[in-house]
Amino acid sequence: MRPRDGDRSRLPHSPGRGIALAAGTAAISGVAVYLNSFAVRELPDATVFTTLKNGVAALLLVGIVLATPAARRAIPTLSVRQWAGLATIGLVGGSIPFLLFFNGLATASAPSAAFIHKTLFIWVALLAVPLLGERVGRPQLVALAVLLGSQLLIQPPTGVTWGSGETFIALATGLWAIEVILARRLLQTIPSGVGAAGRMALGLIVLAGFVLASGRGGVVASLTASQWLWVIATGVLLTGYVATWYAALQHAPATVVAAVLVAGAPLTATLAAIGNGTLPAPGVIGGQGLLLVGVIAIVWFALRRPRLLPTSG
User: Fold this and answer.
1) Contact yes or no for 238/56 (Cβ under 8 A)
2) Is 9 exposed, middle or buried (0-12, 13-18, 19+ CB in 10 A)?
3) What is the rounded distance in angstroms from the CA atom of residue 143 to the CA atom of residue 157?
4) How far apart are CA 265 and CA 32, in angstroms?
5) If phi over 0 gives left and psi between -120 and 50 gives alpha, with beta otherwise, what is residue 79?
6) Model confidence pLDDT, tens digit, residues 237-283
7) Contact 207/57 with Cβ under 8 angstroms?
8) Which pLDDT does position 25 carry in this prediction?
9) What pLDDT does residue 308 have?
C-alpha cells in the first residue's frame, strides 16, 4: 500500500541501505566536482552550463521515472500538497541556489567559496534535529565537530573574506540545507525517483527562464560539439548524483546522509593530485584523513545506536 500523504509510520526505514546509497553519491560527487572544474572553463557562461547540465539530468531522470512502472503509477496519485512540495524543492534546491552559487563564484574569493559550501552538513544537522526529530547524541556531535575540524585543515580560513559573493554562496548553501529537510519529509510519501525527477525538471523551468530573460539564449546555439560533450558527461554524473542522493534520503537520516556526502572530497583531491602530479600539503592530507575518520564514526554510530535515529511517529 502506498503511504498516505504525511503518514510517516509507513516509511521504509533501512539506514544501512541509505548509507550505502549516500556513499555512492559521495563517490559520484568526488568525480563530478573534479570534472566540473574543467567543464566550467570550457563553456563560455557558467549559468548556461549549469542550466544545460541540469537539463540533461532532468530529461534522464524523467525518462527513468516513465520507464519504471511503480514510479510511473505514482504520478497520477500525487496530491496537491505533494505537487506543491515538489515545486518548492524545485525552487529551493533545483534552481535558485544554483543561480546564487554561480553568481557568487564570480566575485567571491576561492577560499571563502570552498569553506562556506563545505559547511552544508552542519546546517543540515542544525535543521534536522528540530524539524525532523532526528536525535544527535554526544558521540555524533563529536564526530560532526571532527568533520568541521577537518574542513579547517583542508581549507584554512586564511584568505577568507566576506562580500556580496560570499553572501550569495551562503544563501545557496542554506537553501540546499533546507532542500534536504523538505526532501526528507516529502520522500516519506513518494518514490525517490519521482522526487529527484521533480526537483530537476521543475527547477529547470526556472533556470531556463533566467537564461532566456538575461539574454543568454544565443550562447546555447554557439556551443561546439566538444562543449556539448562536456555538458552531457557532467549531466549524466548529475543524474546519478541526484538519483542516489534522494534514494539515500528516503532510507536514512538527513544528518547521516549529509555527513557521508563529505567523503567525496578526498576522492576529488586524489584525482586532482593524479592530474597535477603533485601531492597536497601535509596539513591537507591530515585533514582528509580526519574527514574520513569523522564520516566513519557517524556511520558507525548510526548503525550501532538505532536509538539516535529519528522516530517513525
Assistant:
1) yes
2) exposed
3) 21
4) 11
5) beta
6) 999 999 999 999 999 999 999 999 988 888 888 888 888 888 778 88
7) no
8) 95
9) 43
The cell for 57 is 539530468
Q: How many CB atoms lie within 10 A of CB 222?
A: 9
Positive or negative: CA dihedral 109, 170, 234, 14: positive
Cell readout for 44 is 563560455
Is residue 6 within 8 Å of 79, Cβ to Cβ?
no
Locate 240 and state its grid cell.
546519478
Res 10: pLDDT = 45
SS (H, E, C) the chain: CCCCCCCHHHCCCCHHHHHHHHHHHHHHHHHHHHHHHHHHHHCCCHHHHHHHHHHHHHHHHHHHHHHCHHHHHHHHHCCHHHHHHHHHHHHHCCCHHHHHHHHHHCCCCHHHHHHHHCCHHHHHHHHHHHHHCCCCCHHHHHHHHHHHHHHHHHCCCCCCCCCHHHHHHHHHHHHHHHHHHHHHHHCCCCCHHHHHHHHHHHHHHHHHHHHHHCCCHHHHHCCCHHHHHHHHHHHHHHHHHHHHHHHHHHHCCHHHHHHHHCCHHHHHHHHHHHHHCCCCCHHHHHHHHHHHHHHHHHHHHHHHCHHHCCCCC
Query: Which residue is listed with cell 526537483?
Result: 199
Which cell numbers in the block locate residue 278?
603533485
Handedness of CA 7, 8, 10, 12 (dihedral sign): positive
* 177 and 120 Cβ atoms separated by less than 8 Å: yes
Residue boundaries of the structural domains of the chain: 23-304
Q: From residue 18, how far is each of 21, 24, 104, 155, 191 by CA, in Å?
A: 5, 10, 32, 28, 14
Prediction pTM value = 0.88
